[in-house]
Every structure is written in structure tokens, then in C-alpha cells.
## 1
Amino acid sequence: MELSQKTIILGVTGGIAAYKSAYLVRLLTQAGATVHVVMTRAAQDFVGKTTFQALSGHPVLTDTIGNDHDTMEHIHLTRQADAIIIAPATANTIANLANGQAHDLLSAMCLAKGKCPLLIAPAMNHEMWSHPATQRNIQTLKQDGCQIFGPNSGVQACGENGPGRMLEPEELLAEIIAFFQPKYLSQKHVLITAGPTQEPIDPVRVISNLSSGQMGYALARAAKESGAKVTLISGPTALPQPYGVERINVHTAKQMYEAVMKAVDECDIFISVAAVADWYIKNYRSEKIKKSNQKIGLDLEFGENPDILASVAQLPHPPYCVGFAAETNDLFEHAQAKLTRKKIPMIIANLSQDAMNLPHTDVWVLTENEKIHLHPGPKLAVARNLINIIAEHYYQSLRSQA
Ligand code: CTP
């Protein structure tokens, strides 16, 4: 329940994307938010009030005049709200907001909102979006402190193609959740490896491990939420790409090594979460090995893969490096040994039976002279705490270098 205790005002204006906002209400309420919907007259030509009323569980507000329960609704509601999100926000709405117009309840609320943050999800034809007047209005709104979410580019309701599509409801939910997270890493670039690697034996067989990638993906999301630019280099997983994160897919440890080395110069922090295969198969067969040609078992020769984390830590100007140690026994001895051997300032230690392929985890943060036990829980919650701790130590390391 990532939005429990949050009250959100959803403003719906007159665009075809209004139908998607009905699903946004469902997602927001499922995330624990209390949602009050305000519709403009034009919005009601696209979707009926009843839909939003049923989904939000609250009466839909439509106008200042004739509102029988509270004539000061535009003031009172914004005082209780944690944010106003306008989705979809038409070009006309954006122009009105940029100019401080108060034609109807929604625009009056935006003018009377006080400190309540205003989040805007534009939706319009690409020519309208690119028009200098709209771009000017968007700049004005940004200067006024509004957050602009999107728009996406793609095929539009009119059949044309270009920027102006409203973000999908799931993407808007991710933006709204991220909006409430502290921005520990704004302007920073975080590089993360995640998931298992696969070492091919023949065209249909690989050696791999049980890593699901969940912790690396949770850290990618948490880093993105905290304001960082995030590059995720991922071995094969079944997980969806975290919203707003650049993902580079690889299979083998060597591919992961090359992708990391290509990206590492631009990054400030490197978090090595991947369960990298230690060995590759030297005698890879280009044709499928037939059972009938083998004695019992396969005659495999192994070569050592590069240690990606240790290689990054040895660069002349390394980013702040964080490793992971998943152990079955003697957790602290093994983790501490890896910290020293790989010459890194921080390692996250966990027992593989408490974390691997599971949705929750239980971790310790080890540095040269600290051992911090984090509150165990879902991987995203733990990842958010970890990002906070990593950011603190990263800034400390910058200060000590200065
Ligand atoms: N790691 C890496 N490249 C490798 C092996 C490991 O970047 N070839 C990183 C992992 O992403 C992790 C840390 O090193 O952050 C520790 O990985 P782990 O597999 O636990 O340690 P190893 O060094 O492989 O040692 P061992 O397998 O003996 O436990």
C-alpha cells in the first residue's frame, strides 16, 4: 500500500485519454490512496461521472456553482490533499493553468491550492504539443513548480504519430509514487547489474543460477524514484522493465562485463547485484550435444569469467562501488572477505535462503567499520532503505576525497 495515508485529487479534463483515467483511479485506490475526482464539463462528454464515482467511492465534483455540499470545496479539498494530478491535461487546460484562469472548479482549485503540489499529465495531438504556445505554457508551469509527467510518443487517437500521448495509467502510478519519495540521488547516475547470467554449453543448454533479478530491479526502481538516472544491465529474467530505467539485456558474464565497462565512465554509483556465473564453458559445442554420444554426464571444460565488480573497483576513477554477497553460511566472514578482496567500500550481505528467488529479503550493510541490519521486508522497501544508506555513504566519500 504505497499510497496509504495519501489523499489525491484527480482532475479529469476533456480529452480522449479520459477513459484511461478511470483505470488510474482504480490503481491509485488499490495503492491505498483516497481519491477525489474533479471533472470539467468537457471531460463528461468522454466519460460519465458515475464511472469515477463508483471507482473512487466519493462523489465527483464538477462545478463551483450549485455544488450542494460545500461552496468552498475548491479551498477545503486542496487543504487536505497531498497532491492534485490532472490526467489528462488538454492543451486548453494547460494554457488556462499557465495563465492563472479560474473558469471552473478544477482551475479554481489549482489557483487556490496553496502548497498542494500540482502534477500534470498532458494529452493532446502532437502538433498541439509541439506548438510554441503550448511549450511556453509548459515552461511557465514548470517554473511555477508543477511536475509534468510525459507525454509519451506514438500513434494518437487521431491516427497521427508523435509526442502527446498521455502516459499509461501504470506509468502515471509509478510517477505519483516516485513523487512522494525523497530525492537522495537527483542529478546522479546509478549503474546496476541484476539477475543471473547464463553460460551456454551448446545452442540449447546453459549453466545458470536461481537469481530472479528482483533485488536488482527493486534497487533500480528505488534509485529512479530517488531522482537518479538509472542504467540497469540485466541477465535473463521474467521481470518487466522498471519505468523510466534504461535496461540493457545480456546473457553471459562476458557480455555483462562489456556492457558495464561501456557504461561505467558516466556513472557515480555502481551497484553490483547480479549473480554472475564464475565460469564459462570453454568447450562450447555449436551443435546440440546428443545424449547417445555421451557417456554419463557431460565432459565440460571451464574457464574463469572476469570479476566485473572487482574490475570496476580497480579503475583509476571508480564510481562508488556496492557489492552483494549471498551466502549459505558464515555470512559475515565471507562478506567481509569479499569487501576486502574486491576493494570496495560497501557490501550488502544476505543469506541466500532468506533472499534468493523470494519477494522479500533480510540484509546487513557492511563497510570497513560498520555493520547495519536493515528492517527485513519486501525487496522494494528494503531497496528504498538501501538507496538512502548508499547515498549517505556516497556523499561522505565525496566529502572525504575533497
Ligand atoms: N561479481 C561480479 N563478477 C563476478 C562475480 C561476482 O561482479 N564474476 C559480483 C557480484 O555481483 C556481487 C559480488 O561480486 O556483487 C559477490 O559475488 P559472489 O558471487 O557472492 O562472490 P564471488 O566473488 O563470485 O565469490 P564466491 O562465488 O566464491 O562466493
Note: The chain has a mean pLDDT of 94.
## 2
Amino acid sequence: MAGPKPALGAWQDPSAAPLVEIRNVTKTFGSHYAVDDVSLTIYPGEFFSLLGASGCGKTTLLRMLAGFERPDAGRLLIGGEDVTELPPYRRPVNMMFQSYALFPHLSVADNIAFGLRQEKLPRAEIRERVAAMLELVRMGDFAGRKPDQLSGGQRQRVALARSLVKQPKLLLLDEPLGALDRKLREHTQFELVNIQERLGITFVMVTHDQEEAMTMSTRMAVMNEGRIRQIGTPSEIYEFPSNRFVAGFIGAVNQFEGRVMEQRDDLLLVRSDVAGTELRVRTQQAVAPGTPVVVAVRPEKVLLTTEQPPPGDNSLSGSVEEIAYLGDVSIYHVRVPGGALVEAQLTNRARRAVAPLTWGDPAWIAWGADDAVALLE
Ligand code: ATP
């Protein structure tokens, strides 16, 4: 079953054949657009996440891939074959449900073997494949137990084994770690990625947890109100959000509203009243003077000092209003004269690194033109 590890970045290879093509798919419930004209391409070996808040349509999209919902418009292709009209059991797909949906009266081994028995495979083959799966998910010692004799994490592993044993080309996972507590969740994230890489099966996961999507995915799609707002690798989405929604949804961000005054090559000069000054931000787009724009900068990109920084791209003076000590990092909120409350995040590497600053202190914050992005929508 083990396949070669997929070449990273298949989505960047123009000759790569996609495994999943979602073409202009729409699904309505009554007058509500659960999924609204979504197009998406996923390549073999990817761990792809659909990320969004509750109700954004991610589960509906996953269920359409599985065949449990029929799109109102658009086509779904898997491995080049149009599967839009095919029932779930005719698709090379398996789905792992959030509830795990294990059979309570069957043992762990019988739960895993269930699908293979339905296919009437030879007994010896079933035994072999179930044994391989039990080993893969480290449940060999629990083969004879019933689901209610297992912990949540163990049940999750049985459900995973059961959905992988039929060797689908594509595994769909609906909030697979939702039932686990935080510690177990983090551990299981690594385990799941490990298994996915070893098997080379393409995973598409639905989650509302941005950290989970960031840690596990090769690429992810951020959804809102039935639409995809951005598709990219976790670092592309974090470093270069393409709109305000994505910037605000993933991680903390300072957003300064303003208007473009001038563009000098790839440098935008932005007048921002809330920042109380002119901001400089690097961009690849041509933007006309007068265009409203938001300059977005992550708290960890902001330098915080007691002394005026040397002349650079962006520096604002203000006063420290709030400090939160979070162990490994401290968060500072600095009020600037324009009225904005700017968040700066400092790593507490050296114990005294941030010692001089306290509530009410005057402080400077600074960042480079390359550390921020200009958002036009
Ligand atoms: P969650 O994380 O809460 O599961 P989601 O992003 O997966 O949310 P969906 O389950 O895809 O969202 O639902 C999208 C929208 O479609 C929601 O507003 C939901 O109420 C609606 N919806 C989903 N299934 C049905 C259905 N069978 N009948 C009517 N409305 C539905």
C-alpha cells in the first residue's frame, strides 16, 4: 500500500495531473447558498484543508465530494473522471466522520474488517490487511476490544484504520480531531500527517481550527459564506493574505485603514489617520492614488523599543496600554496618537529582553515596508 512520498508542490508543476477538480460548484438549501460557485484543484498526495467558521459551507463541500449531497450546478471530477452523478459507493473515496461512526457491537478488528467483508474479499487477505492497519495505527493490542472500551484517541485511530483499509485514492476527514482534548489533539495531528505521508493517500480535511490547518496541510482553502477567499500553502496564507477577511481570520494582525497617496515602483505610500502618519508598504500590484487600502502587519513583525528607532520605513510613537505575559511570549498593546491600538508580540527569550517597559510608558513601534501587506479588499 505504501506509495512514494509525493513531490512537494505538485500544484506548482504545470504537468501534474490533479486528483480532485471542483468546477464552479454551487449548492443551495432553500434560498441559502451553502456553497457558492467554488472551484478548486487538489493534487495527488496533498493534505488539503478546508478551513472556515461554522456554517461557511466546508462540510457541504466535503459531502458533495463524497457523494452524500448533489450539487445544483458545477461538476466534480476525481482522477479525471466526472463523478458528479455517481453514488458514494462508486467513488474512489472514503469519508471519516467526526462521530467516527464505529459499530458498537463489533470489536476493533471487526470494525476495520467490515468494509472488506462486504466486498467479499478472501479471508486471508482480510486478515492481512486488518493486521497491517492495526499496526499502522498502533492498535494491535486492542484488536479484541469493543469501541466503548476505548479512549477517544483510540476510537479515532480505529476510525482512521477503518477508512484507510479499503485503500481509497482520496480520504475525506470531517473535523477528525474534534472529539479529542487539546494535548491529544496536538499529538494526533503529527500522527495523522505521518500516516498520510507514509501511505501517499490524498487527504482532504475540514476544520474550523486555524492552527490545525496550518500545522497539517500542504495547502488550504479559507472559506467564508460559501465562497473560497484564498487558497495557498499555510505560509502563503499567513504571510501574504490576499484580503482583510483572511488576514483577520488567520492569526492576530494589526490593520491600519488608509488611502494611497503615491506609488514609487513597488513601494506604496499610504496616509493613515488611525496610525496618525504615513505608512510605507511593499506591493507587487499597481494601485492608483486615492484608493482605500488596509496596511496589515503581524504583531511579531513589530519592533517595540523605548528609544526612537533609526529612520526607516515605519515608526510610530505611543504609550503602552496593556501587557499580557503568556510564558513564551509577551503581548504589548501600544496606543498611537491616531487612535489605533497596535499589538506587538515579543518572544521572552532573554528574561530581561522586555523588562524596561511597563504600563503607561512611552514606546516606539517600527516595522519595515516588507513586513506588512497592502490589502485592497
Ligand atoms: P460546521 O463547522 O458548523 O459544520 P460548515 O462550515 O461545515 O459548518 P455546512 O455544514 O457546510 O457548514 O453548512 C453550510 C450552511 O448550509 C449552513 O448555513 C447550514 O445551516 C446549511 N445547511 C447545511 N446542510 C443543510 C441541510 N441539509 N438543509 C438545510 N440547510 C443546510
Note: Helices lie at 58-66, 108-118, 123-136, 152-164, 182-199, 210-216, 234-239, 244-249.
